[in-house]
């Protein structure tokens, strides 16, 4: 998984990186649907990208990364 | 009519987190007021405040904090203490027999709600000129978010409401919760208030009212001086205070430790002036609360005054107490605890009702701090400077009066 995204996720939610396994559900990590929306908003601001509205919002960490990663500019460093 | 037991108390304030620490500060007249630096756009100013050094991280996961204003955080800290004291848990499905989530409600008072989040949104929009705001802006700032967070934490599905009656908000919210139980709409209520208003906009608005205290020569912490000849105004404060209220027989059946009985409440409106208090309206609230409690004025052994330390407010309250208590007023011990914890606005009534319940339970009267030189117009027994023993206290009263002319009075008696 993209290490910049994982770092940002770990920092935002105060969760140690070893717990951030690809199959971990966002719910099991303590994120409800509003926290997910707020996090995607932060990602958009931080990386200057636009994440399209989702009919099915990401359920796991891997799904969230899959949603965001293709939109990141190549070589863009994490803030 | 059903009786109402108080079974849990919780406080977070400028003078301590936890009811024992809070009440000990009141007894020792140890003030939590200090000068804090607030960075206004025109420059940093030193502002007197009852502010709380609060680190949210030990209390809440960060994911939860994304959707929770400081005002809701305070309410949850106070609620957890009150529920723990009542022996009730946040785990779903763990309410003792006789209590059901559907008949356990929340009654919350706040003056400014999520004012910090509102200001952050306007700052982003107008100062930082962002094109869009955080998605959680509405749910962070809305006034009933506080009650929502409290209800979700404990799974409480009974009636919930949010009262915004300025400084009388949480006395009113407790009184209305009392009526929910008394009249059978709920069997238990988590009731109180929360306030987190020490942001730039709110402080500037209060400065413009010309009701805030000036720094006292004796030190910033001595600047709020209720009933004193040299008082200069109120000091804004933040915090929360929550109580668990239960139907009396249900509380007894489950073996709850009943701390006191909430037995009287009245609410009146002056319909007179937006900011000038009215002794008649205040006195009527005290008299009606006594009637509601079916108590004689002589039963009240301590009165926690609204006592904000404004020039007009303390004089009018003195007149109102004389109107309500007549000849008994001169012998009634009264104090204002705002010199110590400041004026927590929407949380003030709940904090002071908890102070009153603790007074009833301990027989120790908290003094009015810094009352070395009483205003001759405030000529009642305002228990100056030092705590006092009061043997055999049977009932106590707590006054809360607000801008807008809202008056709320609560009475508790020994269990």
Instruction: Compute the number of helices of chain A.
Output: 3
Task: State the name of the first-level CATH class of the largest domain in chain B.
Answer: Alpha Beta
Quickly give the structural class of chain A.
mainly alpha
Biggest pleated-sheet summary of chain A: none
Q: Helical content of chain A, roughly?
A: 40-55%
Report the principal-axis shape of chain B: globular
Helical run tally of chain B:
13
**CA-CA gap between termini of chain A:** 17 Å
Low-pLDDT windows of residues of chain A = none
Specify which chain pair forms the largest interface.
A-B, 14 and 11 residues
The CATH class of chain A turns out to be: Mainly Alpha
Q: Any idea what the shape of chain A is?
A: globular
Return the string of H and E elements of chain B. Answer: EEHEEHHEHHHEHEHEHEHEHEHHEEEE
What is the radius of gyration of chain B? 20 Å
Question: How would you briefly describe this protein structure?
Answer:
The complex is a heterodimer of chains A (79) and B (415). Chain A is an all-alpha fold.
């Amino acid at each position: 998984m993209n290490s910049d995204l994982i770092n940002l996720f770990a920092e935002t939610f105060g969760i140690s990186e070893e717990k951030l396994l690809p199959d971990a559900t966002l719910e099991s990590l303590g994120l409800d649907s509003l926290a997910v929306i707020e996090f995607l908003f932060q990602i958009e601001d931080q990386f200057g990208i636009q994440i399209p509205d989702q009919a099915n919002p990401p359920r796991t960490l891997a799904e969230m990364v899959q949603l965001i990663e293709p939109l990141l500019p190549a070589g863009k460093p994490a803030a | 009519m059903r009786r109402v037991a108080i079974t849990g108390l919780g406080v977070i304030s400028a003078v301590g987190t936890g009811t024992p620490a809070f009440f000990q500060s009141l007894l020792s007249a140890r003030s939590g007021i200090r000068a804090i630096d607030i960075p206004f756009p025109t420059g940093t100013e030193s502002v007197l405040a009852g502010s709380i050094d609060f680190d949210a991280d030990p209390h809440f996961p960060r994911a939860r904090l994304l959707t929770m204003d400081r005002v809701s955080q305070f309410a949850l800290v106070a609620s957890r203490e009150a529920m723990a004291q009542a022996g009730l848990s946040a785990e779903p499905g763990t309410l003792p027999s006789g209590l059901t989530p559907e008949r356990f409600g929340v009654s919350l008072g706040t003056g400014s709600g999520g004012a910090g989040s509102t200001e952050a949104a306007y700052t982003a929009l107008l100062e930082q000129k962002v094109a869009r705001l955080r998605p959680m802006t509405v749910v962070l700032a809305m006034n009933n978010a506080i009650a929502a967070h409290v209800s979700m934490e404990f799974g409480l599905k009974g009636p919930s409401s949010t009262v915004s009656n300025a400084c009388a908000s949480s006395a009113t919210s407790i009184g209305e919760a009392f009526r929910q139980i008394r009249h059978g709409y709920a069997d238990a209520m988590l009731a109180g208030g929360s306030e987190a208003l020490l942001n730039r906009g709110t402080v500037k608005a209060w400065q413009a009212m010309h009701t805030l205290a000036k720094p006292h020569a004796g030190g910033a912490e001595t600047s709020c001086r209720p009933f004193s000849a040299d008082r200069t105004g109120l000091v804004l404060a933040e915090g929360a205070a929550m109580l668990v209220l239960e139907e009396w027989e249900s509380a007894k059946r489950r073996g709850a430790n009943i701390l006191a009985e909430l037995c009287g409440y009245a609410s009146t409106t002056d319909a007179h002036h937006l900011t000038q208090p009215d002794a008649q309206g205040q006195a009527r609230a005290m008299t009606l609360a006594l009637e509601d409690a079916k108590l004689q004025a002589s039963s009240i052994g301590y009165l926690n005054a609204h006592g904000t330390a404004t020039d007009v407010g303390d004089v009018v309250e003195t007149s109102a107490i004389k109107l309500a208590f007549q000849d008994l007023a001169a012998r009634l011990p009264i104090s204002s605890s705002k010199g110590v914890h400041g004026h927590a606005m929407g949380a003030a009534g709940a904090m002071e009702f908890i102070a009153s319940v603790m007074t009833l339970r301990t027989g120790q009267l908290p003094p009015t701090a810094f009352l070395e030189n009483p205003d001759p117009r405030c000529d009642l027994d305002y228990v100056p400077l030092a705590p006092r023993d009061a043997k055999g206290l049977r009932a106590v009263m707590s006054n809360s009066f607000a801008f807008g002319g809202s008056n709320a009075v609560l009475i508790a008696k020994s269990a």
